[in-house]
Amino acid sequence: MSVSSFTTAASLDDALAALAAGARPVAGGTDLVVGARSGKSTLPASIVAIHRIAELHAVSHADGALRLGALASHEELAASDDVRSRFTALADACAIVGSHATRAQGTIGGNVMNASPAMETGGPLVCFGATATLQSATGSREIAVADLWTGPGATTAADDELLVGLTLPTPADGTGSAYLRLEYRRQMEIAVVGATAVVTVAGGAVTEARIAMTALSPTIRRVPEAESALAGSDGGPAAIAAAGAAVAAAATPISDVRGSAEYRRAMAAVIARRAIENALARARGEEG
Amino acid sequence: MKVATTLIVNGNAYPVELDPGTNLLAAVRDVIGLTGSKEGCDDSECGACMMLLDGQPVNSCSYLALQAEGSEVTTVEGLAAGETLAPLQAAFLDLGGVQCGFCTPGMLVSATALLAANPSPTEDEVRIGLSGNLCRCTGYDGIVKAVLSVAGSS
């Protein structure tokens, strides 16, 4: 199918009107155009380019929350002092998306709405309790990112809804976080297996732990069994190993060209353990 | 359906008429006629098509040309000053960074973006920075040496 209509939205209202009329949005194009050219899908018949909408580019950290415009690029987020200092796992993830060309053009909003179970930023967003704001010509709603994804490439968003931004509550003092993936190549890669850990420590004990697994289930999700193995512990090797084993036990990976299910499950424990170790070290101020 | 637009490539304005599904690479190569940028994988994996969009790197095979309206596009043809090669281009020739030449336009554009963002990269930073650009000939050593020589940190 060829593209029969293309407009560039000058404002959010323009974009929402185009979506209401049946257009599909494009921002950086790094998923949409690649998918169409590789034959996985065709380009939509009607496209509205949203990349010039200035208000969707803003990133701010105020009043106890980080607010990301849907058009914030991975490059911007990886370089943001606010993201690096308080939401370090998200900076880890943004820094390894694609190549520098992907990071310069690809947006956090596109990444979320593409809903890949192997996306790098998904685990950090889920662990930080990110909320997505979806807007249409007729209204606006908020939904936890964890509830937005329903399966590989699928979300609860209606066709006329646009993800306009993400809100992440600022973690408590004493929190450290890390995102780590198993990779075969240092760029132009997506997670073979990924793990996110967000931990809060006080007085030598882990007071809160959030752990998510990536490329190990149909959607990226937290692993409560791993979190309870770590929370309340001393954050020592036994607790970390137990949490890693819980991630492997909860995993339901697929076999594909990048790895067998058996290999992914075996590596899940390793990658989760390393992510937790990094997050704990950062929470304790031992390393950046 | 064709859409009329103007693309600014290497400082020159090109009025063009494009099918809206045309990617930036096809517009620049086939419509404008600047064939320096190459189509390698056509899947955003190899970097042979890399251009700069307002100074930021873009895999042009994966970017709709109409989205570039209002932006400055730079291709490998825009790196030299007239007949004088850019220092990176000269270094690629001097240090064996070119063999078949197919990846070279993307490598040069990618390295230009890398050095603009990080003027004094370490060897590791150069290797990571260029790992979105595949070369099947030289084994990368000459390319990395060339970039480091321009960065002045070799």
Topology-level CATH name of the largest domain in chain A: Uridine Diphospho-n-acetylenolpyruvylglucosamine Reductase, domain 3
Q: Can you identify the CATH class of the largest domain in chain A?
A: Alpha Beta
Structural class of chain A: alpha+beta
How large a portion of the residues of chain B is in β-strands, by DSSP E?
A: 15-25%
Structural account:
Chain A has twelve helices and 14 strands. Chain A is an alpha+beta fold. Chain A has three domains: 5-47; 58-169, Uridine Diphospho-n-acetylenolpyruvylglucosamine Reductase, domain 3; 175-283, CO dehydrogenase flavoprotein, C-terminal domain (Enolase-like, domain 1). The model of chain A has no long low-confidence stretch (mean pLDDT 95). Chain B folds into two domains: 3-78, Beta-grasp domain (Ubiquitin-like (UB roll)); 87-151, DNA polymerase, domain 1 (Orthogonal Bundle). Chain B is built from five helices and five strands, in the order E-E-H-E-E-E-H-H-H-H. In chain B, helix 2 packs across helix 5. Chain B starts with a strand and ends with a helix. Classes of the chains: A alpha+beta (288), B alpha+beta (154). The A-B interface holds A 2-6, 8, 26, 28-30, 33-34, 36-38, 43, 47, 49, 51-52, 75, 98-102, 104-105, 185-188 and B 1, 3, 19-21, 23, 42-45, 47, 50, 53, 56-59, 61-64, 66-67, 69-70, 110, 113-114, 117, 127-129, 131-133.
